[in-house]
Specification:
Mean pLDDT: 88
Radius of gyration: 15 Å
Strand content: 25-35%
Number of helices: 5
Oligomer: single chain
Distance between the termini: 17 Å
C-alpha cells in the first residue's frame, strides 16, 4: 500500500486525489459509529468509548473524508506496551507512564481500501509518536486484519505473558497484539 496522500501541516490534513484525513470532532461520532458497525460488526463499542477517546486525546482521533462524507476513521492514544485496553471499556485517564502510541482502531469502509488512506493514517501515527517521544506503535489486530498489519511491518509482541493472553481472549478468538518500532516519516 502506498501513501499517495501528502500532509498539509498548517491545517493538519492529508490529501489524496479525492480523500482527506482531518481531525475528528464530536459532530462526526454518529457517522463513526455507523462505519464501525460496517467494518467491525463482531467488535461493537459504545458511543461513550469514542467520546472518551476524543476527549482524552483529540490529536489521536482522525476522520477520512471524501466529498464531505466520512469514509473511515483512526483512533489512537498513549498506551503501555503489552497492556491493551479491554474492548468497549472507557480508559478513565491516559497512562502517565505511556511508552507507546496505541492504535485503538483504524477502520475504512470496504470501497475506500487500497486508496492509500491506511498508509496515510499510519504515517500520521508514526509522526505523532515521534513528536510525543514514543518508540513504539501497538495495536490489537482482528483475525481478518492480521495480514495487513504483517505487511506494514507489525509483529506479534512476545513479552505479554498470561495477562495479555487473557485480555486478548476477552476480545474473541484469533486476536493478535502487535507492535512496530516508530519511524520518522517525511
Amino acid at each position: 500500500m502506498t501513501a499517495g496522500l501528502q500532509s498539509d501541516g498548517e491545517r493538519g490534513e492529508s490529501r489524496g486525489a479525492s480523500a482527506v484525513w482531518r481531525a475528528m470532532t464530536a459532530a462526526d461520532l454518529d457517522r463513526i459509529l455507523a462505519i464501525a458497525d460496517i467494518v467491525h460488526p463482531a467488535y461493537p463499542e459504545e458511543r461513550s468509548v469514542f467520546e472518551e477517546r476524543l476527549a482524552l486525546y483529540p490529536a489521536g482521533c482522525r476522520v477520512a473524508e471524501r466529498d464531505g462524507e466520512a469514509i473511515g476513521y483512526g483512533v489512537m492514544h498513549p498506551g503501555r506496551l503489552g497492556v491493551p485496553p479491554p474492548l468497549d471499556t472507557p480508559l478513565g485517564s491516559l497512562p502517565a507512564d505511556a511508552d507507546c502510541l496505541y492504535l485503538h482502531d483504524i477502520a475504512l469502509l470496504p470501497e475506500s481500501r487500497g486508496t492509500g488512506l491506511g498508509a496515510a493514517v499510519l504515517d500520521y501515527a508514526h509522526g505523532l509518536a515521534v513528536r510525543e517521544g514514543w518508540r513504539w506503535l501497538a495495536l490489537t489486530s482482528t483475525p481478518g486484519a492480521r495480514s495487513y498489519w504483517d505487511r506494514v511491518g507489525f509483529t506479534p509482541y512476545a513479552e505479554g505473558g498470561p495477562a495479555l493472553e487473557a485480555k486478548l481472549a476477552s476480545y474473541g478468538g484469533g486476536m493478535s497484539y502487535m507492535t512496530v518500532p516508530v519511524q520518522a516519516r517525511e
